[in-house]
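Task: complex structure prediction.
Instruction: return structure tokens for all chains below.
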Amino acid sequence: MNSFSKEDRPQPNEVLSVMRVHEPYLTYARDLIAVICLALVSLAAGLVINRFRSLPLPIMYQSPEQRFDAELTTLIVSPPFKNAPAATVGLEQFRSALAGKSTLIFDARPSSFYEQGHVPGALNLARDNFAHDYRKLSSVLKDAQVEPIIVYCGGGDCHDSRLVANALVTLGYDDVSVFTGGWQEWSAGNLPVTTGSNP
Amino acid sequence: MTARRSSSSNYIVPAVSLGVAAVFFYASIDKLRDPLQFADSIAAFAILPARLISPLALGLPPFEVACGLLLLWPRSRRVGALAVALISVVFFTALASALLRGLTLDCGCFGAGAPSRTRMWQELGFDLLLFCGSLLILLRSRIPTR
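Output:
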């Protein structure tokens, strides 16, 4: 039987001295385990707190661009988008409405086209940036719930003015029409034009 | 002389612990209040994948509070200091990497602010200070005896 001789057998004070040498490392290891546990408990606490927030943070992070896109969709989809044919006006009606100054005119084309030239007094409410422009124009639109609104876009086969007009009807504006001739007819008639980002 | 030195060093560890704990409590306030803003700050570093951003944004503020609490209690001070040292290294590495990549961002360390490289350098220095403070606590704190 293999056994330690009396001299080989580790003495109790030797065991203690080995433990004393390794004690700091053992303490650091214990502290490190405690920190890992702390991190896990903190994560659990964070998730629990998040559940009780009025606006919880989604577990799958969405970038500001993704959130804006989702918001835009919400703005147009809810309440249900009314894809009803809006009333239309011709060039003469459009001009008299413009001269009357009581009608709000919206240009539904992208801002780059608007800046190149638009009907004097028209505000840019671009179809491709609708939610952003809508919020920007909120103070003007707040007063326009009862005012007539005319929307135009490029003219011809352009659908932007119809989409914007329908979106405005969906959002609670009653008197919304579309100038079907649009920018094409206006510019062809050698009528006044304003350039830049201001109406 | 020796007695005076030992009595002054008796106060150093609690004082530094209190200071670091106060910084961590302060740092956690805005993160707890607006986790979305903090998540955006983390995302701006472009280091972590999207699926890890929200868990970090939610878990880090309670972790900071816990670090602060542990630093206040002598028996748990070592664990708190080790946690602060580790997290300071993480913050320092993230900020240094952003600075090296030429990014100008708001690190969200102490609430939201305007993105600024000057502020990033200041916060990098602050992380270094926190690391040194936590190291001091760690090395000067007595190992608890059972």
